[in-house]
Amino acid sequence: MTVLAAALSAAMRGAKTQLSVLDTDSDKWIHHPWPEVHARSENVADRIVDDGSTSVGLVGEPTIEYLAAIPGTFYAGAGLSILPGPIRRADPARWAQTTLNRWRSIGVTTVFSHGAELELLREQADGVVVRDLVDVAHARRSTTFEASRTADVAILQGTAGSTGTPRTAQISPAAALANLRGLTTRINIDGDSRLQSWLPIYHDMGLAVMLVSTLGQADLWQASTKAFSSNPFGWLNWLHESKATMTAAPNMAFNIIGKYGSGLSGLNLSNLGYTLNGGEPVDCDGYARFSAEMARFGFNPNSLAPSYGLAESTCAVTIPEPFSGLRVDEVTVTTDAGESTRRFAVLGHPIDGMEIRVNTEQPHATEVTDREVGEIEIRGTSLMNGYVGAAPIDFRDWLPTGDLGYLTDEGVVVCGRAKELITVAGRNVFPNEIERIAGQIDGVRDGCVIAIGTGEATARPRLIITAEFKGDDEPAARSAVVARVASECGVVPADVVFVKPGALPRTSSGKLRRLEVKRSLEGASR
Prior knowledge:
Elements (H helix, E strand, L loop, with lengths): L2 H12 L3 E6 L4 E6 H18 L3 E4 L5 H12 L3 E4 L9 H14 L4 E4 L1 H8 L6 E4 H4 L18 E4 L9 E4 L1 H15 L6 E4 L6 H12 L3 E4 L2 H6 L3 H9 L3 E4 L1 H10 L13 E4 L6 H11 L9 E3 L1 E2 L6 E4 L8 E8 L2 E8 L3 E2 L3 E6 L14 E7 L5 E2 L11 E10 L2 E7 L4 E3 L2 E3 L1 H8 L5 E11 L7 E8 L4 H16 L5 E5 L14 H11 L2
Parallel strand pairs: 1-10, 3-4, 3-5, 5-6, 9-10, 9-11, 11-12, 12-13, 27-28
Antiparallel strand pairs: 1-2, 7-8, 8-21, 14-15, 15-18, 16-17, 19-20, 20-22, 22-23, 24-25, 26-27
Helix pairs in contact: 1-2, 1-3, 1-7, 2-3, 7-8, 11-12, 13-14
């Protein structure tokens, strides 16, 4: 048994806490003691070993059977690839074909699923065994699973693909365990902790919350991402009901609550000691607005914890110490309109076993003029073995992340992605700030804006903003976006394109795919 499997097995067998799963049909929480989850996991492990599989796929909603399959795969000494189900308006048959092809490409031979996804996959499962989780991950158990296999890879984690084609990071059992232990130590997760999550398990942050709860023998209240999407304010009710001490979400969730939560009542959020913001660029104003809006429910602003991580490092790279609160670094930005101040969230220091540095040797001229900005590089015990089909990586070597940022005494600051830097009128600007400002205009959907540069190699590079719009007066909104961006960012958009809500392409984890929009616009202009 691998070090990861052994640690999870020991934690679940000895835990006096439980895993609570939200049943979407009844809207009730179903409670399962961790030892019961362990028994279900052993049944999954038996099935995998009998199938002779070394790489396993998992897809579906987060039922108890689904969640038990995760440690069960590790017990069996197999690598686990979790992929998302079909999204709204997607062609179900095409989704099944694409998902199976992706699994085949990384060596998956057994897939666990349930419900509608199960039937869709079985219709096209040539060369792949598709098993029903309900039949396999039951709680009946009379013997102890005898682990006979070890593995070099525990997690086959898809990368976000926001700036290119998604790849699959190979995470070893030791790297995964190092990351989980780094998180549990930094956040102080133990048997008195209560975690609440609706994050997708196929995303590294959602998987980490689930496994950190398991390893720390904490209570975990797990809802589905669909349940959050259908009612974002339900998240606050779950925090209230569970008396959660820790939760995590991407920036957009905090923006929604802060912007539209004024009518909420009857909540108690005073138990929250760690409110992690990760997976997306942190909007300092939106995050602070969430904190201020929730203060009347006893929310402690010092629980705010903006963090930095990536799939290539299992999940976390830097996270703040508990009760640090939102730390902001104000920088001077020089535009044609003069100097202005921009606020960036400070994302804490590396967890145990990880190191971070900023490589300033390569030129990366940016709008941030009074900080030493460069490409962020990482190394350490949480680092992946490498991408599937690529050369192996040594965790002792520095890995370029593609993120631009700088270091402060309080931690790292991430400014944006190197590939997404926009060069217009001799200036380099990050899209995040342009998108944030455009999202403040009436009718423009906040968090649904993409800013890109086109024709950077020509004599006339252009800034184009594409935004989802749900207002009534497009011309007025378009003029307002141009005026606001020009005055606050010092760059005049060449065009503002409005599209229907939901039209902008996103990754499986919800990140906007800027480069896909860029390629589409550049192709249309030829």
